Predict the structure of tRNA uridine(34) hydroxylase.
Amino acid sequence: MSYKIAALYRFVCVSDLPSLRSELLTLCQNNEICGTLLIAHEGINGTIAGPAEGLDRVVDALDQLLGIRQGEVKFSYAGRRPFRRLKVRIKAELITLRAPQANPAVLVGQYVTPEDWNAVISDPETVVLDTRNRYETRLGTFERAIDPDIDTFTEFKQYVAENLDPAKHRKVAMFCTGGIRCEKASAYMLSEGFEEVFHLKGGILQYLEDVPQQETLWQGECYVFDERVAVGHGLVESTMRNCFGCGEALSKSDMSRPEYESGVSCHHCIGELTEERAKGLRQRNESHRVA
């Protein structure tokens, strides 16, 4: 069967998180949904998948509960089950920045549609920032984009403090996979005194769907957080696969290297792999094959 996937988020005030979690868990279980939903007092974020009719029922319910269609909802499809299980979790933040002043429900940057994005980032006076983590930026990014070379989103604050100045960098344009990270980053930048802050509405995924390949300023592929690993223009699924040992995205040539062992290691993590860890991973793989 094919699976319909919804990547969604909205910054909105949410109360009584335990009750909401229970309601969402039951809703998703009743509609054969897999994937992850995160809820916090600042809103909802997640990527879920399931049979088309079931997923549509869940999205309709989320719209009634949280007005999700006033935020971002992005649909795509996969030929195989993209997530192993269902998780509905309560979090302190939807995307961890640890900067209370960064509240997109109060203050947020200017949205830029995919159709207008090329013009914004082609302006030589605009600083173009990729707000994603290092393992994501390795696969692809926009022309002229600066990679902050961060491992976690919380490190973004340090990068801004050490490399950007509101008095010098008056125009900043940011992007991320689906829009949520750069939306929060834009709220943070404005709180730090930056004047003109832009972010790509719907993120890279919306750009890859809406902008013709012959007009693209995107280079490479976009990392996604499901079994597809990465997608290209038109959201076409990549041939890449994740290393189970460390989660890095691997090409066919990466998987032909001697360091690669299916379900155990790759050239990114082999140097830190202990024999005990390798043994545990091999046992896990064997139990899955038997099951």
Q: What stands out?
A: The chain has nine helices and 15 strands. The longest helix spans residues 275-290.
